[in-house]
Design goal:
The chain is built from 22 helices and 29 strands. With about 700 residues, it is α/β, with parallel strands linked by helices. The structure holds adenosine-5'-diphosphate (ADP) and iron/sulfur cluster.
Length: about 700
């Protein structure tokens, strides 16, 4: 197949200062949970994206000094010459495909506590650091500013020695020292770095000039600027100061990389914003500069990308999440295979790995973060290990992914699904308010499976143990899923809650199957992620009065890891959902819920016609239990392995189910131990630590 000529513009080369990008696909800086701790893993991750056709590939934020230490999070580090080889690995890997390597050097200033280095954070003014820690940043003196400029210059020179092509000056996401100098609410200096916008821009201007002076002969200098903070008059507003800052510096950098701050506003989930959502705030930039502009907006549709360029919104299509979900997105457009693009679903599970300082992961792309340590490639998979056939029972995310990965390995795959439609939980959950894009998990996999001649799909086929034995496949994978509990057992309650056997108690499954509650409704959230609050939205849509009760101090406390806490709370409060925090339920009798405050033990009663219990799920593993006890029958049926995968083994996220399905298929007929993977081990320095650094 060949490229649709409509998309030709996406493949035009474009100059960025002294360097030229081979096309318009620009992987903007993105965190990954790996950072300085896994340089080989990261180099391979970025290399795969270069192989997939991205014209520019950037690092995540890279700290330039021990006074910018954002431990416990793992970002990049360029504190000294010792850090050059680790970063050079990535630049070299990317250059193998004629892609440009970009590095986002930065100083956190008052955004980090410096837990590890124990340096005192610095900032424009005396202020507590951004996050809730008992740590204050001290106001920088003029000599501190001179020193900072030296650190930045040194880091830029080191980046050049590491062979990067684009060096960033970073002022975005409510992070980075120049950003804090720009922010009136954080800068009350009385000198030439505070007060007027001209003064507050000074540090940013100087850092751009310094960087150009240091490395501009060979490297392009990019500025990443948050042109809008969505804080009204308290923050940077794109139509006011955002515009003025760009106007003041318009021709100074070689590239403008612009977005909406903070990170939660930049990487919004699909539940709250759709593709291209930043345009209203960033589109003005191109009218003020002749330099190329890159912006983001969870772009996965080539038509939208072309439209952004043709309408003069941006010159480069910036992408973090779409490049994680499909590292081969550019190549697929180039080869006329747009239907093969594995579109990001906008769930932000990838973001959660940064918050947990663990390997990058993705709901759609199970190979993400596993490129080096397990040798997984998003588009290539080893050939099958035997001629055995595979029967997959259940076509939820785990079953669909297991079937697809095994089919790509060349196995003859039979996929049986009890329901008339494929997709399991994704089919149902994507019909809930705001979650429609999650349907891409099933749509993409079904679209890939249908044309494969070695795959047979059986709908409306609830298989029994006898059916499976009769079918007699060489391998059987049970991906039978899970169901929500009705009894209240979960984190807060080890035993069933009295009264939860009433007909007025609902589970999320009941609602997703169309059972209708009566108001007033109480939703008991001991799950702490999306399900309870999405169901609250659904009940409000049904015209019901809703109260959400949670034993936690915060509503949807885990959703902070997907940057959704504030948006969820805002939505619930806007919909007048009553919120009762740190309360547990002790009893449900006579349409009355009896609650106990988890802090004081005080008693509270709520009227409740329907209670929706969102506490925990139980695996649907009966089939596995039945079959696994029948060794002889399995042997006689020719079934050499019987595996339970996905939620049927242990209920978890959709990402976990997809990953497990993929892993199952990868290790089918393999001798490799599935729990082992290559690790980047700490360097043991023999003898004493370097004497120059010891007192
Ligand atoms: P996971 O997240 O692990 O993929 P899901 O709950 O999303 O799990 O999907 C499980 C799927 O398995 C559902 O679509 C369900 O209808 C199907 N299923 C469960 N038991 C059987 C069975 N005995 N035969 C065929 N399909 C089944
Ligand atoms: Fe997109 Fe979700 Fe993957 Fe992140 S984890 S890249 S948001 S699909």
């Amino acid at each position: 197949m060949s490229r649709d000529p409509r998309f030709d513009i996406l493949f035009e080369p474009l100059k960025i200062g002294p360097v030229t990008a081979k096309n318009r696909f620009f992987q903007v800086p993105h965190c990954n949970g790996m950072g300085w701790t896994q340089p080989q893993g990261l180099a391979e991750l970025r290399r795969v994206k270069a192989e997939g056709g991205w014209g520019v590939i950037c690092t995540e934020e890279v700290e330039i000094h021990p006074s910018s230490d954002c431990s416990p999070y793992h970002e990049g580090r360029l504190w000294s010459d010792l850090d050059i080889p680790a970063l050079a690995l990535m630049a070299e890997a990317v250059h193998g495909y004629d892609a440009l390597a970009g590095i986002e050097i930065m100083h956190h200033g008052p955004s980090c506590a410096n837990y590890d280095s124990r340096e005192i954070p610095i900032g424009p003014s005396h202020r507590p650091i951004t996050y809730y820690s008992p740590v204050q940043a001290r106001a920088m003196s003029k000599s501190d500013i001179r020193e900072l400029r030296q650190w930045h210059r040194q880091a830029a020179l080191r980046a050049k020695r590491a062979e990067f092509d684009i060096v960033y000056v970073y002022a975005s996401h409510d992070l980075g020292l120049p950003m804090h100098f720009l922010q009136r609410r954080k800068n009350d200096r009385g000198d030439e770095y505070g007060g007027s916008l001209e003064n507050r821009v000074r540090l940013l201007r100087e850092l751009i000039e310094d960087t150009k002076d240091a490395v501009g002969d060979r490297c392009a200098v990019a500025v990443r600027l948050g042109v809008e903070e969505l804080l009204g008059a308290d923050g940077i507003v794109s139509a006011e100061e955002g515009r003025d800052i760009v106007a003041m510096l318009a021709e100074l950098p070689d590239l403008w990389d612009v977005n909406v701050s903070s990170w939660a506003n930049d990487s919004v989930t699909s539940r709250f914003k759709k593709e291209g959502y930043q345009e209203e705030h960033t589109a003005f930039v191109k009218s003020l500069t002749s330099k190329p502009v890159v912006g983001v907006g969870r772009f996965t549709s080539p038509d939208t990308m072309v439209s952004q360029i043709r309408r003069g919104v941006m010159d480069f299509i910036g992408a973090a999440r779409p490049s994680i979900a499909d590292p081969f997105l550019p190549n697929k457009i180039n080869e006329g295979r747009t239907d093969d693009i594995r579109e990001c679903i906008g769930c932000n599970i990838c973001v959660s790995s940064d918050y947990s300082s663990s390997n990058l992961r993705c709901t759609q792309n199970p190979t993400m973060g596993e490129e080096w340590r397990r040798g997984w490639h998003p588009e290539k998979i080893p050939a099958r290990g035997s001629d055995k056939t595979l029967l997959v029972v259940g076509a939820g995310p785990a079953g669909l992914e297991a079937a697809l990965a095994a089919a790509k390995r060349g196995y003859e795959v039979h996929l049986a699904e009890a329901g008339s439609e494929l997709g399991g939980r994704v089919l149902h959950e994507s019909s809930l308010p705001g979650l429609i894009e999650w349907g891409r998990v099933r749509e993409w996999r079904i679209g890939q499976l249908l044309p494969m001649s070695n795959v047979s799909i059986y709908r409306d086929s609830p298989l029994s143990a006898a059916d499976i034995l009769e079918f007699g496949a060489g391998h059987v994978a049970l991906a039978t899923g899970s169901h929500w509990r009705r009894d209240g057992v979960g984190r807060a309650n080890g035993w069933a809650i009295p009264g939860f056997n009433s007909a007025d108690v609902f589970t999320p499954d009941d609602l997703m199957k169309g059972r209708r509650p009566r108001g007033p409704v109480v939703i008991f959230d001991d799950d702490h992620y999306y399900m309870a609050n999405v169901l609250a939205e659904r009940c409000v849509e049904l015209g019901l009065k809703v109260t959400l009760v949670t034993p936690a101090v915060q509503v949807a406390s885990w959703a902070g890891n997907t940057l959704e806490s504030t948006s969820i709370l805002k939505r619930l409060m806007t919909l007048d959902v009553e919120l009762v925090r740190h309360h547990n339920i002790t009893r449900f009798v006579n349409s009355t819920l009896h609650l106990r405050c988890e802090i004081t033990g005080r008693h509270l009663e709520l009227p409740c016609q329907s209670l929706i219990n969102v506490t925990a799920r139980l695996p649907d593993d009966a089939l596995h239990t039945e079959l696994s006890g029948q060794d002889t029958a399995l042997r006689e049926a020719g079934i050499s392995t019987l595996s339970l995968i996905g939620d049927g083994l242990a209920p978890g996220t959709i990402a976990a189910a997809v990953y497990q399905g993929h892993k199952f298929a990868r290790y089918l007929d393999s001798e490799l131990p599935p729990h082992e993977y290559a690790r980047e081990l700490p360097l043991i320095q023999l003898g004493e630590p370097p004497h120059t650094l010891k007192q």
